[in-house]
Design a protein that fits this description.
8 strands; globular; alpha/beta; 270 residues
Length: 270
């Protein structure tokens, strides 16, 4: 047993709630935005951190990543030993499960760490330390790569609404809001799925509150487009948002019910 494997895992046991296809929106975004980086990596390893009481999300992550990077491998990491034991029968070529936590018990630097619904139970003050710990384990940037990617966020039980932060070795880069448009009354409905770093900042005077306020206004102004469907209304609302907010993606992603904004525009004040 290596010294790393012998250390006590860092972190707290989560509720373990999971469902098949729950993380499809996050995975779809990862494949679209990080797939080229994975293809270029010599040995791309992705970590599904805190996959929960069942291994479905890790199994699905492998299938989705291999659609763009056939040599990608996935390591499911869980702090609860019983969950690791229950997942072991699902191991296959390219997919293994390991006992561990924020120390990320894999020998190489991962090209991707996905941490969905993991920090929800932590205090806001702990987030920066966890982010730094995980970003420090990512594959470093080089002349041909921006380095590994940490995707950390929260979604509902069946994955209809999801908000996540993307971070590189240097720190946070963007925030993505993703939803099933047919279930959305207004964009601010996504507030309840803000990741821990932002959810308590949805109050007047904070950037994320101003963003969701402006998004609701743009959504209301785009109401005439609803006759063409929720997708067209969303696209119009996001297009209007770009006048005042640094939206970093385009219509191809907006059509998926997504919008991605530069982290600096939404980062908490103080």
């Amino acid at each position: 047993m290596t010294a790393r494997a012998a250390t006590r895992p860092e972190g707290t046991v989560t509720r373990g709630t999971t469902n098949p296809n729950r993380l499809r929106r996050m995975d779809r975004w990862i494949v679209a935005t990080h797939g080229a980086q994975l293809r270029r990596a010599v040995e791309p390893v992705a970590v599904d951190l805190g996959y929960g009481a069942a291994p479905w999300t890790a199994v699905e992550l492998l299938e989705r990543l291999r659609s763009v990077a056939p040599h990608a491998r996935v390591v499911g990491v869980e702090i609860e030993p019983a969950r690791v034991a229950a997942a072991r029968p699902y191991e296959r070529e390219g997919l293994v499960f390991r006992h561990g936590g924020f120390e990320i018990p894999v020998p190489q630097r991962p090209s991707l760490i996905r941490a969905a619904n993991v920090l929800r139970q932590y205090d806001e003050g702990q987030v920066a330390e966890v982010w730094a710990r995980l970003c420090g384990r990512l594959a470093p940037a080089s002349e041909r790569s921006r380095g590994g990617l940490l995707v950390e966020g929260t979604c509902d039980e069946i994955g209809r609404r999801h908000v996540w932060v993307a971070l590189g070795p240097e720190g946070p880069r963007t925030v993505t809001f993703a939803t099933r448009l047919g279930s959305l009354e207004r964009p601010s409905d996504l507030a309840e799925r803000l990741p821990k770093a932002l959810i308590h900042r949805n109050v007047p005077g904070e950037p994320v509150h101003a963003f969701l306020r402006d998004f609701d206004r743009a959504w209301a102004a785009a109401a005439p487009y609803a006759s063409y469907g929720a997708r067209q209304r969303w696209i119009r609302a996001v297009r209007d948002l770009t006048a005042d907010w640094p939206v970093v993606d385009g219509p191809v992603r907006w059509r998926q019910g997504e919008v991605t904004v530069a982290w600096g525009a939404l980062a908490p004040r103080g």
